Amino acid sequence: xxxxxxxxxxxxxxxxxxxxxxxxxxxxxxxxxxxxxxxxxxxxxxxxxxxxxxxxxxxxxxxxxxxxxxxxxxxxxxxxxxxxxxxxxxxxxxxxxxxxxxxxxxxxxxxxxxxxxxxxxxxxxxxxxxxxxxxxxxxxxxxxxxxxxxxxxxxxxxxxxxxxxxxxxxxxxxxxxxxxxxxxxxxxxxxxxxxxxxxxxxxxxxxxxxxxxxxxxxxxxxxxxxxxxxxxxxxxxxxxxxxxxxxxxxxxxxxxxxxxxxxxxxxxxxxxxxxxxxxxxxxxxxxxxxxxxxxxxxxxxxxxxxxxxxxxxxxxxxxxxxxxxxxxxxxxxxxxxxxxxxxxxxxxxxxxxxxxxxxxxxxxxxxxxxxxxxxxxxxxxxxxxxxxxxxxxxxxxxxxxxxxxxxxxxxxxxxxxxxxxxxxxxxxxxxxxxxxxxxxxxxxxxxxxxxxxxxxxxxxxxxxxxxxxxxxxxxxxxxxxxxxxxxxxxxxxx
Amino acid sequence: xxxxxxxxxxxxxxxxxxxxxxxxxxxxxxxxxxxxxxxxxxxxxxxxxxxxxxxxxxxxxxxxxxxxxxxxxxxxxxxxxxxxxxxxxxxxxxxxx
Lengths: 494, 97
What we know:
The structure holds 2 protein chains of 2 kinds. By secondary structure, chain A is an alpha/beta fold. In chain A, about 35% of the residues lie in helices and about 20% in strands. Chain A is globular and about 70 Å long. Chain B is of the alpha+beta class. Chain B has one domain: Beta-grasp domain (Ubiquitin-like (UB roll)), CATH 3.10.20. A 3-stranded antiparallel sheet of chain B has the order 2-1-3. Chain B is globular, with a radius of gyration of 14 Å.
């Protein structure tokens, strides 16, 4: 099946297909040398690309770079602590890392420790899969008041990301939080604020976070969207879970559940939105029990206009919102109605989308926040079809910050297919030898930069699990970089 | 034995990222025979939640980890969704996360 597909693609590209019955690229004598690949980023995008390349090419040698001591990207630092099943995919990523043709380089940062240019000189193929570590801004007054954070910052904080531990968040003096956005990340942060800390204390949540949540005075969380329940970006599993959260009363304005013909059309054409909307409608039945001391309110058709400062001029005290309406058809436009409202709060979490960061020498579309690409091949600019030899992107850096873990599997397939086509055409290297890992090691050693191997990560992993076991947690994440490096780099041969 | 397990035992490349815990949709399979599909018990809410997110969802789609081998299903033919090159097409609707 695979051979047939390759033949079809090859003929579409005007290539002659040799007509052998076995796969073209499994013998190293076909290519004459190892295929040296560097994947930057060890989240799902990076690991699915590595996995597929190793499967596709016997002679691939894949190095995976990761700037943090620990691998796995958002699986480790994004998936919520109360969603352990979603992290199971780490098992197969570990199997990929343990392949003798794969090497993990933790604590190595693109840009700081090694440049893109250096990587492209040392490897036949470079795949950038470093995701999106920044945020979209609202661009409204008050956005930089204290008590205003992006959801990503809050998620990094409770997930023990080394860059998130010092978040200046105060939950002791705040009773109400406003979450802007209604995607799954918005539901994650609302749920972590509302879930009873005793339930969280047996998860892999960071210790500093569960400690802060135990003394949190937050009793009410608003989750605010600019459009209606028909357009909400969250998915059924997450919505079902938060609607059923113990001890939490759900508040929804019934008027927001009215639908227009356009809404019904949208619902009919999307299974995801239909099931989400049905859950919002049924939500009254989730809250029949008494004794709920916390409230989750879904606010629809409200767009933030400004964040309001308290008398001290430093802390946020509320959100100024404009009522909105959907007008016209195919497609509908969101318009302001000229009517305004305020919500009082002491904490604002903006969950309006992540954004990728550019690196030097990398073409970047600043408007979309992605690297312009053609099926994963990096384009020299977004104004040209010319592509950069041997340079690819995968994951959020390629597609934008949407999708689930599994989305990266399909995305990786597309990128690996492009790499395969280019290898077949010897576009990647013109059959030139490159140093691969040896070159990278020499660059790092010149800078006295020590890197964590996968074995070093496994040591760190064991330590976290042992520390967690004592507290009834699956792991106690080691959040300080120095401590993580001390464990990960210990007993390394020079 | 589930169809996901059966695939792995027979070296068929069926992805099972969450290893059968209903936390992903990567083991999505398509029943080629409508009558056999109809014989299956209804998917749970949890399975449907994951099917919502599956690529190339069809009227006879199920998660392989939830289909358990039974005599009545003997002879069933399952197709894997095609890996399509659709990410660079304009108008692509982003999937939620």
